[in-house]
Structure formats: C-alpha cells, structure tokens
C-alpha cells in the first residue's frame, strides 16, 4: 500500500524511467531500487511503535516493503490515483476489489470478459450470494436499466478479451455517477495500460491490471495491481489488503518496477508491430475477419476454415502457441479452448468465441519476421 506524494507532475516516460531513483534516502542513493529480502524490520525503541506510521515506516513485509512501496508509488502516479496495491496476480487484484462487496450486493459487468474473471464472478454468485447482470456494451440506456438499489459496482474491460469490444468509460462514469455516485466504476486496464487509457482520469473509481501482461511485459512474472482514485475506497482496500495478504514479493516487485521503466517505449513498439501484422491478416486469404482496435498489441482473428487451425499452430516457428499476452515474445492462443473453457458453450458462441477465433499477442520481434512466420504457417 502507498499514498501518493505531492511532487511536480512530469511526463509518463520521465516518471517511469526515473521510478525509484531520487527516493527518500531508504536506499543509500542507489539509482536502481534495491531488493530488500527481509520479512520484518527492526524497531528502534518503544516510542517508535507508539508513533508508528504505516505509510512511511516498515514493520512486517505483508504490510509494506521498501521495494514494493516504490513500485506502488509509481503505479499510483501512473494511473493518477491515490492508493496503489501490488499483488501476486491479476486475479488476486480482482479479488481485492471484490473484498469491498458482500452477499446481496449487485454487480453489473460487461458480458465479454477475461475467462478467469468470468469464472470468479460465477463462483461469487454461487458461493457468496453476490448477484450479477451482464451488459453487452452497446446502449448506455440498457446499462442504466440494469441498475438496482443494491448495485455497488460496474465492471468494465475495454477493449474486451478476446473480442476486442471497446466501451466509452467517460460516458459510463458520467451517466452512472450523475444519479448514483455511490456505484463504483471499476476498469480492467490490462490490454491498453495507462499509456493508451487512464480510466481514473476518465471518471472511473478503481483500476485493476494483470501486471503479468504489459506492465511486466517479459513473460517472466505473475502480478496484479489495484489503483483507487480516492481515500475512502483506498483506505478500505488497504485494510483488506494487509488483512488478507496477497502482496507481491520483493523480487517480483523489483522486476515489475524495472519493466515499468520501458512501458511507454514497449507499448509504442507493440502497436507499430500489431498494425503491420493486422494489415497482413486483413489481406491473408485464409483469414475471415480481423478484430483490431488500432492500438495496443492484441489482435483477434477468425480463420476461415477450421481445418487450418491445427496446422497453423503446429507450423509456427517464431510465434509460440502459449497462453498469456503482453510480453516481448509473440504468443498465439485459442480462447475457446485455453482462456474461456469455463464459459458455457452457448455463451461463448453468442459472443463470437468460436473454435476458429485465435488471439495473437504481437511481441517485439521484427514485424516482417512475424508476418513471414504466419504466412508460412498458413500456406
Ligand atoms: C490475464 C488477465 C487477468 C488475470 O490475471 P493473472 O495475472 O493471470 O491472474 C485479468 N484480466 C485480464 C484482462 C487478463 O488478461
């Protein structure tokens, strides 16, 4: 947990490149933040305990570690929120947000979600008595009609996974908050990252990330992030976070902090590559339809003939047939079987998650090589 300090606002590239440098003297002026592998911290005397401030001091690593604090301070600034939390996975981050709700509360979510989020919501409904309504992301009036007195949260993923639907966060936040400022607007910002979209600035209350994806960006760690816009929600999350304890360990905190430094340059390179690959897929005769929102590194596409899918996976030489996304290595997945099998078949098909839909996470290899790899695999 961390609180945002009041420092002069700089551009995102500067903020991230300098993350952890010029910090408050914890680290003997090292330019790179050290990893503190300590589960606990010594106290000077009894007086220190009596005046202990969780926001600036250390006692026990579930509460705070110096490395995670630098990371969380950076994340809060990055999403322009007040409180940030670094957790062990994206799902742990989503679970932390849901620690705000209780049995009987009503949640409205977009219908097309990450498969694990869908599974978690299903579990909450069955085991914990939360109720959910699904919105297709089209008419804002339909969203308003779903609001009930017990509605506590609207859960948005944009662009959605895997069908790349986009919704207007600002319009949703404005419309809902006008009548119901108590309803929390929560956005899973994993796909676009704050480089392309800052949900809190657009009016949302909470942002979550699977930091496993673009924020870490190297296919080498699992992590999750929650950022809250204001103190009230932030303080409650902070209490729940230290009470439940899915906090990111010092080594992964360091890795994630290191990765954030190159996030802006990586996102631009992912977009450049993805635009080229999407253009090739548009022209590829074996491809029926391409779903690409124009920015970011994620492309979904339909293969015309199902018989072509298995050979495609088998023949790829550079792109890996693997789950996950957002890293430097390009990955191809089949959501129908890999990320969304827990969604009922009828629901998958209704959303367009068919056996012919593939999802490509375009990495940072040379685009010409990626296109050649796909071309030879389709041939
Ligand atoms: C991967 C992912 C998650 C879950 O994150 P984990 O780090 O795998 O737990 C949540 N939302 C989206 C959009 C994802 O892609």
TrEMBL record:
This is PLP-dependent transferase. Keywords: Pyridoxal phosphate, Transferase. The keyword Transferase applies. PANTHER family: CYSTATHIONINE GAMMA-SYNTHASE, TRANS-SULFURATION ENZYME FAMILY MEMBER. The modification N6-(pyridoxal phosphate)lysine is found at residue 213. One of its GO terms (cellular component) is cytoplasm. Its cofactor is pyridoxal 5'-phosphate. Belongs to the trans-sulfuration enzymes family. It comes from the Bacteria. GO terms for molecular function: carbon-sulfur lyase activity; pyridoxal phosphate binding; transferase activity. InterPro entries: Cys/Met-Metab_PyrdxlP-dep_enz, Cys_met_metab_PP, PyrdxlP-dep_Trfase, PyrdxlP-dep_Trfase_major, PyrdxlP-dep_Trfase_small. One of its GO terms (biological process) is transsulfuration. The keyword Transferase applies. It comes from Ligilactobacillus ubinensis.
């Amino acid at each position: 947990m961390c609180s945002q300090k009041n420092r002069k606002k700089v551009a995102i590239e500067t903020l991230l490149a300098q993350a952890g440098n010029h910090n408050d003297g914890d680290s003997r002026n090292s330019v790179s933040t050290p990893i503190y592998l300590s589960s606990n911290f010594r106290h000077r005397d009894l007086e220190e305990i009596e005046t202990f401030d969780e926001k600036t001091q250390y006692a026990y690593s579930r509460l705070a570690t110096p490395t995670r604090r630098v990371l969380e301070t950076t994340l809060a600034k990055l999403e322009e929120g007040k409180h940030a939390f670094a957790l062990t996975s994206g799902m742990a981050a989503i679970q932390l947000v849901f620690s705000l709700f209780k049995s009987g509360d009503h949640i409205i979510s977009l219908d097309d979600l990450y498969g694990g989020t869908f599974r978690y919501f299903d579990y909450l409904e069955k085991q914990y008595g939360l109720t959910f309504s699904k919105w297709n992301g089209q008419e804002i009036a339909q969203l308003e009609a779903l609001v009930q007195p017990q509605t506590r949260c609207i859960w948005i993923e944009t662009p959605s996974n895997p069908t790349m639907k986009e919704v207007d966060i600002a319009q949703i936040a404005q419309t809902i908050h006008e009548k119901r400022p108590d309803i929390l607007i929560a956005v899973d910002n994993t796909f676009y990252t704050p480089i392309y979209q800052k949900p809190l600035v657009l009016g949302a209350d909470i942002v979550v990330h699977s930091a496993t994806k673009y924020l870490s960006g190297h296919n080498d760690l699992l992590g999750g992030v929650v950022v809250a816009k204001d103190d009230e929600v932030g303080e409650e999350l902070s209490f729940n976070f230290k009470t439940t304890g899915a906090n990111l360990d010092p080594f992964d905190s360091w890795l994630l902090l290191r990765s954030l430094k190159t996030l802006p340059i990586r996102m631009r390179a992912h977009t450049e590559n993805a635009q080229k690959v999407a253009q090739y897929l548009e022209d590829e005769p074996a491809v029926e339809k391409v779903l690409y929102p124009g920015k970011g590194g994620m492309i979904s596409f339909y293969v015309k003939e199902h018989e072509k899918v298995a050979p495609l996976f088998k023949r790829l030489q550079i792109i890996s047939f693997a789950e996950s996304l957002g890293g430097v290595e390009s990955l191809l997945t089949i959501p129908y079987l890999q990320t969304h099998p827990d969604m009922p078949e009828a629901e998958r098909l209704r959303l367009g998650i068919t056996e012919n839909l593939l999802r490509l996470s375009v990495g940072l290899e040379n685009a010409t090589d990626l296109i050649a790899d796909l071309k030879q695999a389709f041939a």
